[in-house]
Amino acid sequence: MVNRWALLCGADFYLEGAGRSKDGITRKIPNLGGCVRDVNNTFDTLLRLGIQPEHIKKLTASVVTGASRPVEPEGQWPTRKNIERELEDIREHAHTGDLVYFHYSGHGVQRSKLELLPDEDDEGSELDGMALVVTDVLRGGPYLTGYYLGELLRRLVREKQLRVTVVLDSCHSGGGYRDDLPEGLVPRTPLEDQLGGTWSEEDDAAEVSPDAAIADGDAGLAPEFRDTGNGYKESWLSHPKNCTVITACGAGQVAGERVFGKGTSREGILTHWVIDILRAFVKQRLPSHSFIVDHVKYRILTMGSKAAQTPILFGQGLCEFFGQYDYFERAACFVTKRQGQTIEIGVGVAQGVAPGALYDLMPNNASFSPGQAGPQARVTKIGEFTSTAELQGDSPDVGPEWLAVLHTWAFDPPKSVWFAPTDQELTRLALESSLQEIPGLVLITGPGTGNCIEIHAGESGNYELLQHGQRLTRIPSISLKDEFAGRKLAYIVSHVHRFQALRDLALRPTSQYLREADFSFTVEPDSVAADDKVYVNVTYTGRSYARVWTSLFCFTASYGVVKLDPEPDKGQIANEARRGIAIEEFWTDMQVPPRARPDDPDEVEDTFALFVSSGDGGPISWGDICLPSLPADDLLLDKLLDIERPDLEEDGEPGGPSRSAGEMERNPGGNQSGKEKSTRPNTRWTVLQKVVRTASN
After folding, report:
1. CA dist., res. 598 & res. 134, Å (int)
2. Which residues pair with 466 in a beta bridge?
3. Is the pLDDT of residue 656 over 60?
4. Which of 11, 163, 280, 676 could form a disulfide with 365 if both were Cys (CB 3.0 to 4.6 A apart)?
5. Distance CA 476, CA 632 (A)
């Protein structure tokens, strides 16, 4: 049986002292008011989720008016010494494969603000330079640095193979952005002059791993610890294995606490919304970390000017929050409004949506299973980042905060297909029937123009697909004798048209665009051999007063669209750009996909596409554009389309093909055109592209 363990830390009270003052003056860090409440609310939630109370430890420092110290005994304060003791206790008592939850609410700081390190704009994750400001730091107690906390948690993973969830509801901006805080927000970071600006011997000791001897066999478990160039070591938490970290915000933002609703007491914004979604899953399997982060981001957006922070996720996003299960999740957006049978969903033309697209709808505390029955809505009007859709049938429960997942895409303007063979009538009829399920995809009666895909009978006994007079390469070979050829051909031409429509988002009118000159986007070399690496670098050089966000995708030679950065399982929608700092910087291997036919070319092209948005409403999600690659093997299409080959009946003839449960209903409303104004009027976006050619060895 797998046990679950939790250590919850909340620091409201901060001892005053001169232990870090260069001038010997006693200093005081402002007390907070919501951290102990965060711990107590989290404790109650964990009990509801079935965690045994004896497996939950609390370290808190509470404020009582007039008291000069926390009301708790010193051994129960959230100090580095006590935190290390409790994590060591979990390590000793936990069994292999158990689950651990670590929560911290309190002040945090970037070490670059402590007057002895370079500015935080240098390279490195905010977790590398992060320090949690525990209760006794002004008395000379050590900060709990990101490096040291990472070492403590890494030891749990290495020695007991524990899976760890970490939530850090603290700020790491180090006293920045204090003049324009949202009204009612109390920041969880002290001002620089309140810290005294010194780094103690105990702090230096905290930079020595608590378990410095690392076996060679652990090389794959954690990165080599190196100097980041900022004067501090890389934290394992920046790239953890079997561990997921959720922070309240990035290094350039302010996280804090405030009063919610009609209450009178403050709570941490991150903790409040994490608990909000967890309580919706009592007596159910918990959602993934990515799901939690997406929910929190959405709820923070609904707060408007009351909050200005974006949670960040590090590590494995698609594993269950404080659980064992690994998820496969499809991109989802939120239902934002409902009026009668009309709803608004949070995707639009910028993400490739067209009138007629069909979306599956589900509560935000439900897990999605492919093929499950449930409410659906069909898009009727589109804006840049939102769409209006009509509910299909009676769906009284659908409302704001429900999720919408793409079921069937659509094309506007329409795309055409011509089936040339005149002696394959059954295949043509099956093709026509399947195409009618996809709004905007039309079977025409003669040769087409433009991007029309033509289907011909090849001399090899397989169908050939042509566009602009050229054969489409790396397309699965479909036999002229395949009884399911019509359905397979419909899938292929729909997929190729969808791929091309998404790739052509870069060709939209420039009125929405950010300046291309504001970005340095490099992918080099632009011609390589298979298995060689290319270097990718994206740096923002502009001076936008609005926040700028980027997401990097690759349009592959096998008609797939893959998100490269932020990595999909990290739960981050996009990376925030900071002027002059590399947003994306990495090496990636280039591959040549398998040939579908012997005469497929040796060289292929992949397109790296940088999707950029800027505005006041937070990052734009482009997850809807992801596409699986077309398989080279025709037999894999059977699985994709839920095709079951019937056994031969007694007379030797195959049984009649049955409609697959996974097939989509025919579009009842046709392709209704129409556009509406975007609800993100201040948001601009653009797509930058770089092509790399890769040749087989």
Report:
1. 65
2. 454, 471
3. no
4. 280
5. 5
| Residue range 508-617+680-695, CATH number | 2.60.40.730
Read off the amino acid at residue 573: I
Give the per-residue pLDDT at 225. 34
Which amino acid makes up residue 521? F
- CATH T-level topology, domain 4-315: Rossmann fold (3.40.50)
Compute the Cα dihedral for 123, 124, 126, 132 and give only its sign. negative
Peptide bond into 53 cis (omega under 30): no
* Phi, psi values for residue 553, rounded to 5°: -125, 160
Over the chain, what is the mean pLDDT? 81
Confidence at residue 197, expressed as pLDDT on a 0 to 100 scale: 60
- Which DSSP helix (H) or strand (E) runs through 320? none
- pLDDT at position 560 is 93
Residues 259 and 265: beta-carbon distance below 8 Å: yes
Burial class for 295, CB neighbours closer than 10 Å (0-12, 13-18, 19+): buried
| Distance in Å from the first CA to the final CA of the chain | 50
pLDDT digits (tens, 9 = 90+) for 101-153: 999 999 988 765 444 443 433 444 445 567 899 999 888 888 898 888 999 99
3-state secondary structure of 666: coil
In this prediction, residue 238 has a pLDDT band, given cuts at 50, 70 and 90, of confident
333-408: CATH topology? Thrombin, subunit H (2.40.10)
Do the bridges between strand 415-419 and strand 403-408 make them parallel or antiparallel, or are there none, so unpaired?
A: unpaired
Phi, psi of 671 (to 5 degrees): -95, 95
Residues 6+ apart with CB under 8 A from 499: 555, 559, 560, 561, 627
Q: What is the pLDDT of residues 318-367, one digit of tens each?
A: 788 998 877 655 678 889 999 999 999 999 999 999 999 999 998 876 55
Cα–Cα distance measured from residue 619 to residue 297, given in angstroms and rounded to the nearest whole number: 10
- Nearest CA to 323 out of 359, 285, 358, 365 is that of 285
Q: Which residues pair with 553 in a beta bridge?
A: 563, 609
pLDDT for residue 61 is more than 90: yes
* pLDDT value of position 203: 64
Residue 607 burial by CB count (10 A; 0-12/13-18/19+): exposed, middle or buried?
A: middle
DSSP-assigned letters across all residues of 419-476: E--SS-HHHHHHHHHHHTTSTTEEEESS---TTPEEEEE-TTSBEEEEETTEEPSS--
Q: How many angstroms from the chain centroid is the CA of residue 546?
A: 22
Q: What is the amino acid identity at position 270?
A: L
Can you name the residues that pair with 648 across neighbouring β-strands?
654
Is residue 138 within 8 A of residue 27, CB to CB? The reply is yes
Taking each helix axis from N to C terminus, what angle separates 289-302 and 269-278, rounded to the nearest 10 degrees?
120
Instruction: Note the pTM of the prediction, 2 decimals.
Output: 0.64
Which residue type does 418 have? W
Does residue 490 have a pLDDT over 50? Answer: yes
What are 22's two structure tokens?
């260069």
The beta-strand segments (E) located in 146-255 are 163-169, 186-187, 243-247
The closest of 152, 150, 151 to 127, measured between CA atoms, is: 150
Distance in angstroms (rounded) separating the CA atoms of residues 254 and 245: 18
Q: In whole angstroms, give the CA distance from residue 563 to residue 15.
A: 47
Tell me the pLDDT band of 660, cut-offs 50, 70 and 90. very low
555 vs 630: CA distance, rounded Å: 12
Specify which of 35-44, 468-477, 642-651 reaches the highest per-range mean pLDDT.
35-44
CB-side exposure of 173: number of CA atoms within 13 Å?
22
CB 38 within 8 A of CB 169: yes
The whole-angstrom separation of Cα 586 and Cα 582 is 10
Residue ranges per domain, the chain? Answer: 4-315, 333-408, 415-501+632-640, 508-617+680-695
Q: Tell me the pLDDT tens digit for each residue of 550-588.
A: 999 999 999 999 999 887 655 568 888 877 777 878 899
